[in-house]
Design goal:
Blueprint lengths: L1 H12 L10 H8 L8 E5 L11 E5 L4 H14 L3 E8 L13 H11 L5 E4 L1 H11 L5 E5 L9 E7 L4 H12 L5
Parallel strand pairs: 1-5, 2-5, 3-4
Antiparallel strand pairs: 1-6, 3-6
């Protein structure tokens, strides 16, 4: 019995940091207060690769894509500091049910879930490039789901909830005017 427990402990210690979580909800809730503008949360399909950059924290959820997206959006909505800027793959609308059974139903469910938010569609490789670049400086939380339909990942760049682009533009205008410094 002791040998079995020791084997389990040794194997658990051999897992990559952040690769497994007994409760992805807990991990999301722990991270939310720490995340701010320029951080990302990704809700990805099961084939999304495990990235090695130190700022990327990957958690296997074992949950459905829609359940995880729903939980992430609720966590963001309840946060005091961030709002979502959502990206989806521009390839997704072009995939047929003949090639990926269930894709039409997924698109419909996702559209309904995200109807209150602006969603930008972008080529998959372009989104990945943005995430790669952001991962050099900022934290990225990757929540891996059991989804087996391609191009279904939801990429959420966080932005400041209490300061918007117009406010920033006004501040920069004031800073650029020497008489107002």
């Amino acid at each position: 019995m002791l040998k079995t427990i020791l084997t389990f402990v040794l194997l658990a210690g051999a897992l990559p940091a952040g690769a497994a979580s007994p409760d992805w909800h807990q991990r999301l809730n722990e991270m939310m207060p720490l995340l701010g503008h320029r951080n990302w949360i990704l809700v990805v399909d099961s084939a999304y690769p495990l990235q090695i950059a130190p700022g990327i924290d990957t958690v296997e959820t074992g949950a459905s894509q829609m359940d995880v997206v729903r939980a992430v959006m609720a966590a963001i909505d309840h946060s005091i500091q961030v709002r979502p800027i959502i990206f989806t793959d521009s390839e997704l609308p072009l995939i047929s049910d003949a090639d990926a059974p269930g894709v039409s139903a997924y698109r419909e469910q996702l559209g309904e879930l995200l109807r209150a938010y602006p969603v930008e569609s972008m080529r998959h490789e372009r989104i990945i490039s943005r995430i790669d670049e952001a991962g050099k400086t900022f934290r990225i939380l990757v929540l891996k789901t059991n989804m087996t339909i391609p191009y279904t990942s939801v990429f959420i760049r966080l932005d400041c909830k209490y300061w918007n682009a117009d406010q920033e533009k006004n501040l920069r205008s004031v800073m650029g005017n020497p008489s107002r410094r």
